[in-house]
């Protein structure tokens, strides 16, 4: 006599043709049943007791998972549960380990990108991986990615775009490290440099080509400054302020009025000259440290002449009240160069590359001027908010040489106007 549960077992034909929604138990004693949804889709499900609790495990859908395969999986799961195992947890763990690099990038971004200084840097970080890593690694499961795969991604860029490729390698290493810590992969990191890629790729310093931003020649500074003063618009004023302070574009574009101290409160009760100051918070600095910038009378004049927009905290605001874009400031210099070329002149070119100067290159122009005028290296580097020396040396360097830099900034402003500047003296070239 055939046992009742055996007589109620499903058949392959029934599985292929059933269309009425419901639960159809296999009757084999494993808890396997076929769930038919109102939409017509079908799912294999196993109801099983694991560690004393009744649980359900999905086993896939026909026809991809046949009746015979579903029965085999159900028997294996029941056996594991009877021996004290947890087939449901094993299934979840296996599913997690099958995450792709693209999925891990999403997880890493959600967990870590809030640490970045700005939305711009977050977008740049993800964009590099989108363009160069995902086409090669994106669909690969992180557990399967090996050194050969990372090499396949890096080699097309390592010789010609070494700086970019170096950043790419570091970012891929970070994502894979995150995946390892999350338990999504095991083993050494295939994107690691030491003891791994270092033995297979030439050192970046041996092949990298310096990527300098085109700078303004010192001999063109006065003419360029005069041409800039004739330009109208918020971006032109931002470029003036950027030049006077030797600041980065992002620092100037993100400037808010509460970062400015015109020094009037401290001198209202005395006859002392105000000492205006701009304090850039650590959150907006590349080195993560607050930066004090002495403001010259010329820089203050730029600020005083600006309108203020209700509802916008920015000093140099865009038409809708937001922050100016980097391209807006760059466009001012581009139009100045185009005007020069239209007039039949070569314009404002970097003396080495012969490329048109750009806003960030003005910092190099300032640095060259400071060196030629004999200003101390540390003072010039502090003005540019560059890291100085080792960590030990920085720990002992507590002063930011603010007042000495104030005098240097005044000399730089005079040079922009067309003066020859010595470290402590200003000599007018074109008469009083």
Overview of the structural elements:
The protein is of the alpha+beta class and 432 residues long. It has three domains: 86 residues, Integrase, DNA-binding domain (Double Stranded RNA Binding Domain, 2-Layer Sandwich), CATH 3.30.160.390; 107 residues, Orthogonal Bundle (DNA polymerase, domain 1), CATH 1.10.150.130; 210 residues, Intergrase catalytic core (hpI Integrase, Chain A, Orthogonal Bundle), CATH 1.10.443. It has 20 helices and nine strands. The strands form three sheets. A four-stranded antiparallel β-sheet has the order 1-2-3-4, covered by helices on one side. The protein has a three-stranded antiparallel β-sheet with strand order 5-6-7. A hairpin with a 4-residue loop joins β8 and β9. α6 packs across α9 and α8 runs antiparallel to α9. The radius of gyration is 33 Å and the shape is elongated. The chain starts with a helix and ends in a 5-residue tail after the last strand.
Q: What key attributes describe this structure?
A:
432 residues, DNA polymerase, domain 1, 3 domains, alpha+beta, 9% strand, disordered C terminus, 3-stranded antiparallel sheet, Double Stranded RNA Binding Domain, hpI Integrase, Chain A, 4-stranded antiparallel sheet, 20 helices
